[in-house]
Amino acid sequence: MDIELLIENESKTFLCQPAIQEGIEWSTERKNTPGKLTFKVLKDEVLDFSEGCAVRLRVDGQEVFFGFVFKQQRTQEKIITVTAWDQLRYLKNSDIVIYEDKRADEFIKMVADDFRLKVGTLENTVYVIPSRVEERVSYFEMIQNALDETLMNTGQMFVLYDDFGKLTLKNLSSMAVESRGAYLMIDEETGKSFEYTSSIDDNTYNKIKLAYDNQDTGTRDVYIAQDSVNMNKWGVLQYFDTLQQGENGQAKADTLLKLYNKKTRNLKVTNALGDIRVRAGSMIVVNLDLGDVKLKNFMLVEKCKHIYKENEHWMDLTLRGGEFIG
User: Fold this and answer.
1) Is the pTM of this model over 0.85?
2) Which of 25, 85, 149, 275 has the smallest number of Cβ neighbours within 10 A?
3) Main-chain dihedrals φ then ψ at residue 107, nearest 5 degrees
4) pLDDT (tens digit, 9 = 90+) per residue, 35-49?
């Protein structure tokens, strides 16, 4: 395994290959968190960098991480522990923003232009958000609110991430990890240990109730979608929200019921064989016998941590979703 980690120097004109200690970690999360790279280097006469300097990581010639130094910790042994974040870190800035008639991808492009962030592929999210007022929240939250509105009105989930220095937005359907039609699979051989949880206690709803205060008629319009079978099985688990002008109430209720009328399924896999194509937002096939049920389907990677140590590559994954086949 060939690891190339370069750090920009103080004058921002030269990238040096430092003496790296064992244990590079690259972590990503699907929502509201920038990509993170942590590593240890030995301070010598050549090494000359500070906060704000660029960092890039390639593994076996493939681009993995591009970001900037945000933190250094030093010891008397001249070992520096470096924390670098990708450019999503700048979405932690907060502000007050009002916008109208924009798709989520258009809003992301607007934010990127304001903060001089580099942009790669931003897929068209189709749904036009009538209006939003975002007050004293981070841009991460603003963007996630736009993506959540898109999900609730269309059923389509989009993933925002940094692709080696470029903001990228893709539909979940584009995030499957594959090569020449063969999908990456986690099974008993590639995933050493796991922890599985199923629940109806978090984000599970079998009744959706949406209301709109109709100024034209002076009445409150109510839209309901429900599943009587699961209501008898689990009791009534109701989701309530209000609608904005221009939203299709019944279509949104039906979409929300389809999204939330199911158990939540979470799986944590540790010490899986590493694959640099996997990141938060990826879709991978999981084939595991969990004892009473067998899982064999795609699951969404919520969190991913890659560990490079002693010429080995492992990853820890937090996954959710997936249908179970008994």
Assistant:
1) yes
2) 25
3) -65, -40
4) 999 999 988 777 888
